[in-house]
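Instructor's aside before we start: the two examples that follow are unrelated to each other. I chose them only because their records fit on one page, so don't look for a connection. First example below.
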Amino acid sequence: MKEIRLAVKILKTLIKDRIQYPGRLIVDTIGVIARCGILLILYWYVFKLDNGVINGTTFIFTAWSIFFYFSFSVLRLRDISRLIMQDVQSGNIEVLFSKPISYISYRIWWQIGSGLYSFIIITILTVIALAFIIGFPPTMTINLFIPTFILTFLCGSILSLLIYAIVGFLSFWIEDINPVYWIVDKAVMILGGSYLPIALFPKFMYQIALYSPFGASQFVTHTPYQSWQTNWYQLIGIQLFWIILLSIIVYFMFKKAKKKVSVNGG
């Protein structure tokens, strides 16, 4: 119950703050328009030049896949790693560790709440705009789509938080985690289907995206394609596998980090 009350309080506080000061929403909206919008126009033109079909897929499937990546990125779950690093470098970690709440839960819910308002507003408006401009692919109108999309979205969110939390906890042993963060973030970006949709991946690259935690964290980009109807359970199974494994890694890293703070901090 304590964890639930903490989560609700953090989410309510941060959402109210974002409503009161919509600066983040404006920045995120400009970012989505600048990157996702231009990319969709570019791919529309490329598909048009190639008679509307590339690698067995059409523009409408690719457009929704790209949109799901950029919509998911608005949550800014990756920022948790730098927040952990800031806590360590500033010494604030010792204060937070002494509080009667779980540091990991606190940081996770803070990160979710930080981007939730922008994510909801931008996603709703962009879905309406895309539905009006290009429509929905047939794969997104079947009964299976919504429940499996929600499930893979939740699993992807948990997996993203775990991946970047591991990077963040490295700051207990590495003074500056930014080089590691950049490598991991670029791996997620490439294998998640940001600028090159997964339907256009070469076979070997698709396999890496399929079985690595970096690609698995972005499986929402797979949902518009026709293959999702037959292999959704396999992809969600891969996500669950990585969630269990990375949760164990985070648990032991957190225990060692806490011990390190106790020894060095007295």
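Example two begins here.
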Amino acid sequence: MAEKDLKWYGIFVVLFGTILSFADPITDILTLVEFYRADHKTWFGVGLAFLMLPCLFFPMLYYFSKETELTETSRARRYAQVFLFGFNPFSPAFAKLQTFIFYMKNFKKIWRGHSIKPVSPGTASDEEAYALLTHSNLALMFESILESAPQFIVQLYAMSVQQESVKIIQMVSLPVSFLSLAWASVYSR
């Protein structure tokens, strides 16, 4: 993670990343629906596998990044939180949304130039910023490696070999997956 203070324009970067994190799984799910309707069971199965593969890793990432918060709760509640917030394709999007909400809460401080350094935990807001940004960036990398890259390859190959015309959702999903990959490679610090 870069040793920089949070800047006021970072809220727009996080907002774009949040929108992209929600758009990628949504367009992938809609593409899977089109594969199923068109009776392309193989493409549907492969796409579904790569949509669910990251869901096996997100609970571990959620548990280890939120370990200090989760130790204060009961065991049943801890496992329920890990399962609900970790085991779904939207886990990175929720992490980005939490980061966006953190930026919104601290926008006045950031706008005035008060220092919130996400790399050197010292105060409560610094530690919260560090934990949120670390979890958000790790979730972004997991999503891009385990979901966006395989979905992009599968969708590109399916578009090139399918006999009928390409559906609009496929034309939307392909660049969204590519943009998600590019975003992860550029934005993750």
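The chain has one domain: 10-50+90-187.
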